[in-house]
Amino acid sequence: MSPNAIMSSDREQVLRLRSIVMAFGRLFAVNGVDLDVAKGEHLAILGPNGAGKTTLFNVISGDLTPTRGTVMIKGVDCTSLPSRRRPRFGMARTYQKARSFPGLSVEDNLYLAVVGKRGRHLSLWRSGTDRSWREQARAAAETVWLTEELATPVSDLSHGQKRQLEIGMAVATDPDILLLDEPASGLSRGEREWLIELLSDLGADITLLLIEHDMDVALRVVDRVMVMADGQQIAAGTPSEIEHDPVVLQTYLGTGASA
Amino acid sequence: MTRQLRSPTTIAFVAVVALLVVLPAIGSSFFVNFIMTRTLILGLAAATIVFLSAYGGMVSLAQLMLFGTAGFMFGNAVLEASPRGLNLGWAPWTAVVFALAVATAIAFLLGALSSRTTGIYFLMLTLVYAVIGYNVFAQVVPISGPSGITRITPPPPITQATHLYYAALLLSIGGYVVLKLVARTPFGLALQGVRDDPVRMASLGFRVPLHRALAFTLAGFIAGVAGLLNVWWNGQIDPASIGISPTLVLLIVAVIGGISHLEGAWLGAFVYVAANSYLRALPFVDRIGITEDRFNTVIGALVLLIMVLSPEGLSGVIQRLSNEGRRRFSRFSSRDGTGRVDTSGDDAGESPVVMIDSSTSPPTEERK
Ligand SMILES: Nc1ncnc2c1ncn2[C@@H]1O[C@H](COP(=O)(O)OP(=O)(O)O)[C@@H](O)[C@H]1O
Ligand SMILES: [Mg+2]
Question: How far is A123 from chain B (nearest CA, A)?
């Protein structure tokens, strides 16, 4: 289907999508997407608003069950596995619109992210492991520069801090498949630099899928790009190929390349 | 730890408890054994509504039905040769365990059944539970009468009215502390996560419906405890006491107190019971047209007044006052300190304490 997709067959496949279709009534938000992502690969998904990027993420994370197609995670067919079972595959995601728990403190938000993956959800006692999970939550706060705000209720955070927390909740679980949906939206220039640094520093065995409008951010931290429009892949390649792809410039950027 | 023990909230709590403990020595028998015992019982039941709403985001109308179920079960199990009920004639404490087990099991079943609904749908479903519960007791006469089960007495060590007052006090404190502590456990934090964003909780790996069902079960158990106190206090129970209008009264009690603060449940219960007892007794009250039938209108007006003044109920008013007080205090004490008010030991409500740093914000108003 996609001749220019880079198949990295020598590395372990962590994600394999086949003919994914997600229909909402008569709207095909995702319409036949194939995607292979190898372990440690950093992939950006670009495309105009409404292209179906977030919907594709929802299918991968299990928030939506696709109308058609299969989702394989680490070789296991997860197509209709509920989202709550996916953290155990090492998967973590952020949402385009920050979805944290406004009634809880920053630390408790991060802590819940850790507990969610590790288990003991119904515990009424604080155990020894619990203490190490708190540590893990605080370490995540440090990663996203929120150590000062550990006790702050999330409802009192600034917009930028909420975005930081959103990323913190994803990295707190020590994921090896990380899905970030427009993490840079609404961030200041300085915060963007911080984000780029954070993403460039991700371990080599962490697989990253990044939806990003800001080409500057996206192209600096990934090694492969897929461009979507109208629910389909319209281009794929390395960042430099994509930057000069006439189809992409035409449909996505709407600039240059007068055909 | 020590800081937490000395936090204003803890001090206020200890002071209130101390006052309630010595109350029988200073208060009139009517006030203690009628007003206060009733307040504690209703408060404990209303606290389960507040718990589910404040921590779980679920407004339940089924709590009074569970409360009544425990009462009926106790009556059926404990009585021996009464003209009403099943007359199982069990030992009183066996009957207690039985009544609580039934209420808890029903709560678990109903909680599991409604665990995938939220908001208005959850509210409607619990209203249906309440209606079904009422109808079961109204129509299955062998377990409810005919026309109620009477002559119920409390189990052994509780032989006097003051004993019952202390039992209600002890269980209220116990219920309050348990619900407060549960909120800080992994389970309780997860429940608050479910309240704030169930979709996010699921993608973090939590079983959202299970959390809702278990919270509902815990609330059902505590409602059952309150229901037992209620039949011991009343000596009887009939289906009408768990009908729709008492069901709404319990919700009103929770709302008057402030549905986002556990303490509010008892506050609301006190206002309701006191209004119900004292306003009626005012001289000339019937002369201005407030007859027995119209009394609910008075309560309604009272609720309206409280809600208009503070949508957060009475505990919202108190919180605002205490925040104001603390702010003044911190402005005063920050001259030698950092000026940062520590909120970590606080049960952080919607309106956090404003942080004032006297070194950076010149007190412009004070200079005038
Ligand atoms: N839950 C939904 N129900 C109906 N339509 C949806 C839903 N989610 C997304 N869509 C539609 O699907 C299309 C793709 O949306 P989305 O995946 O959010 O795009 P993107 O993230 O690329 O901006 C849009 O037209 C959007 O309105
Ligand atoms: Mg999107």
Answer: 6
